[in-house]
């Protein structure tokens, strides 16, 4: 018999931005399918998901990957939070995406999410002088050299662990603000991209621990003339990817414009600090789409315009957004 260490990961009830939680369960393995992973529970009164007098919440395994950090037969398990009777907990945004994805599965929606984030060491972004500021932005984006990029070892470790786990990470880059980075996950279907993105975030925090560094997804980690952190959602449906798709993309943009405020409501807390109209963003209450326009809410990539088919990039979601809610909103608005 082999003992398996399974890291059960879930999303808590913290407001306005939910946090990742995890704990380890050891049981007899190896795990060959989801059915081999037992349900579990936790103290919901410590995660803002229950009252102390009735504190048990249920962890229902919904997705798993090998755990390259521990190795062997060990696994990382994504869970939905359920109430003791098995019904869906208020904090569980995944269950709704399951329904919406099923309803619109013929559209074969794909998502590629660009996750930006910022490393902090103590109270300052990694590489910043203590209590002070680095040189103005300009040289840092996709930079090289110890004076320009900070935390590359962590970023490389994170990328390797994600790849070994089977996460479809499609690239990384250093961002405009020093200490800020990006990785992309996708393109994948809505549930896969979201489960993988949450697990990739967990791996990021976990690997950065080894360096005494923390990563934050705050959309505006430093006030002032410093770029915020977003999570651009690149999105397509089957008709958008086929000949004549550009028309469908444009009509999707029109629909998205009519639901702008509803989308902003689920695109991440504190996003108003980031969507100022400066730093490659469109202002919070404006909606605009355009080809190659990085100051628009939605950019139609140049290749898509040239080929007459492809995908759109929703630039509004902030780094701390919940991909279950963002994917659900994009499918509902454009496929409804
Ligand atoms: P940017 O130029 O905005 O920095 P990136 O290269 O960082 O773009 O990210 C683009 C993302 O778009 C990638 O995750 C990629 O997988 C995804 N993508 C590419 N084609 C499609 C498509 N047809 N549908 C959805 N996502 C796509
Ligand atoms: Mn990018
Ligand atoms: Mn970016
Ligand atoms: Mn982008």
Overview of the molecule:
It is a single chain. The chain is of the alpha+beta class. It has two domains: 90 residues, Ubiquitin-like (UB roll) (Roll); 235 residues, Glutamine synthetase/guanido kinase, catalytic domain (Creatine Kinase, Chain A, domain 2), CATH 3.30.590. It has nine helices and 14 strands. Helix 1 runs parallel beside helix 9 and helix 3 packs antiparallel against helix 9. The model has no long low-confidence stretch (mean pLDDT 96). Bound molecules: adenosine-5'-diphosphate and manganese (II) ion (MN) (3 copies).
Name of the CATH homologous superfamily of the largest domain: Glutamine synthetase/guanido kinase, catalytic domain
List segments where confidence is low: pLDDT < 50 over at least 5 consecutive residues.
Answer: none
The structural class is alpha+beta
Report the CATH C-level class of the largest domain: Alpha Beta
CATH topology of the largest domain: Creatine Kinase, Chain A, domain 2
Q: Tell me the helix content.
A: 25-40%
Q: What is the gyration radius calculated from CA atoms?
A: 20 Å
Tell me, briefly, the overall form. globular
Report the portion of residues in β strands.
25-35%
The overall strand count is 14
Order of helices and strands: EEEEEHEEHEEHEEHHHHEEHEH
Number of helices: 9
Mean pLDDT: 96
Note the main sheet.
9 strands, mixed
Question: What are the distinct ligands in this entry?
Answer: adenosine-5'-diphosphate, manganese (II) ion
User: Distance N terminus to C terminus?
Assistant: 50 Å
* CATH 2nd-level architecture of the largest domain: 2-Layer Sandwich
User: What is the domain tally?
Assistant: 2
């Amino acid at each position: 018999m082999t003992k398996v260490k399974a890291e059960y990961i879930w999303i808590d009830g913290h407001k306005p931005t939910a946090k990742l939680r995890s704990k380890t369960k050891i049981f007899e393995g190896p795990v060959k399918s989801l059915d081999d992973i037992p349900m579990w529970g936790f103290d919901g009164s410590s995660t803002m998901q229950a009252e102390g007098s009735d504190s048990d919440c249920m962890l229902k395994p919904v997705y798993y990957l090998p755990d390259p950090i521990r190795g062997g037969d060990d696994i990382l398990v994504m869970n939905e939070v359920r109430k003791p009777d098995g019904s869906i907990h208020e904090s569980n945004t995944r269950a709704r995406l399951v329904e919406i994805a099923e309803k619109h599965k013929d559209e074969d929606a794909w998502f590629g999410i660009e996750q930006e984030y910022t490393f902090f060491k103590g109270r300052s972004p990694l590489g910043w002088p203590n209590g002070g500021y680095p040189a103005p932005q300009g040289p840092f984006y996709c930079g090289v050299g110890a004076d320009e990029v900070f935390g590359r070892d962590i970023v490389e470790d994170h990328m390797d662990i994600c790849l070994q786990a089977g996460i479809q990470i499609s690239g990384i880059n250093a961002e405009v603000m020093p200490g800020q980075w990006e990785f992309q996950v996708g393109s994948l279907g809505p549930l896969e991209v979201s489960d993988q993105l949450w697990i990739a975030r967990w791996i990021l925090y976990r690997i950065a621990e080894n360096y005494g560094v923390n990563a934050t997804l705050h959309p505006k980690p430093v006030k002032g003339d410093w770029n915020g952190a977003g999570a651009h959602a690149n999105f397509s449906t089957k008709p958008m990817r086929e000949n004549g798709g550009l028309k469908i993309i444009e009509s999707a943009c029109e629909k998205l414009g009519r639901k702008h405020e509803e989308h902003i409501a689920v695109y991440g807390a504190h996003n108003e600090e980031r969507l100022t109209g400066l730093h490659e963003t469109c202002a919070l209450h404006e909606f605009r789409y355009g080809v190659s326009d990085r100051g628009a809410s939605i950019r139609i990539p140049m290749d898509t315009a040239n080929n007459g088919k492809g995908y759109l990039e929703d630039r509004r979601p902030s780094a701390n957004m919940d991909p279950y809610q963002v994917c659900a909103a994009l499918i509902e608005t454009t496929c409804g």
